[in-house]
Amino acid sequence: MSGASSYWKNISVAARTLLKGLQLTGAHIFKATSSKKSVDITSKEYFLGQKGIGTIQYPHETIPVPDTGRYQLDVEMDDCIVCDKCAKICPVDCIEIEPIRSPEEFGKTSDGTSKRIYAAKFDIDMGKCCFCGLCTTVCPTECLTMTKSYDFSVLDISEHNFPFANLSSTEITEKKTAWETHQQSKPEAPAVPAPVAAKPVFKPKMNPPGNSNP
């Protein structure tokens, strides 16, 4: 193939591909007179009516968030029994809890579980959270959940630490004092005598059958 014919062939291919791109762009321009409907990805209508402008006017308009989405954590302290399971299973240690035991039951959760431990501190650092959802899985009273809130950007990363404990400093002191007083009022357990070592039992040396040696 000569250089001239190759040159004109390349120009022809470029013209055809350019025309094809302009056709696709032109067809989209006529369809982009209105915004397409924002539908939850779990909906059966997600792939229907997807023609139109895809850009949404955030934050005035948002895409529907699935119910099973993993976003910002929230704690319903009235249902929390301060079992510490969420803090123990967290792979990044973003949950910090300070428990205070109570001498007696002081309430019940919505599912009827007894509450015997106060939370002097219940902090969740969303700056560390990896959104695995393990804490919500092990929570026995389902008081720890992941909400649909995903836009909680801040300028100061320390603001990503969310405190959920609802006790004042005065109440914390009172609860700690009540538990210490309860512990001190308990009768001392009787001393358990040390076990006496058993005397070794003498066993005569036995020769195996057929062995006449002493």
What does this structure look like?
- With 214 residues, the protein is α+β, with helices and mostly antiparallel strands.
- It has two domains: 9-64, no CATH class; 73-184, 2-Layer Sandwich (Alpha-Beta Plaits).
- Helices cover 26% and strands 14% of the residues.
- It is built from four helices and seven strands, in the order αβαββββαββα.
- It has helices spanning 3-31, 85-89, 134-138, 169-184; strands spanning 73-75, 95-101, 107-108, 114-115, 117-125, 144-146, 161-163.
- The strands form three sheets. The chain has a three-stranded antiparallel β-sheet.
- Strand 3 (107-108) and strand 4 form a beta hairpin.
- The longest helix is centred in the first third of the chain and has 29 residues, at 3-31.
- It is elongated.
- The mean pLDDT is 85.
Quick overview of this protein structure:
With about 210 residues, the chain is α+β, with helices and mostly antiparallel strands. Helix content is about 25%, strand content about 15%.
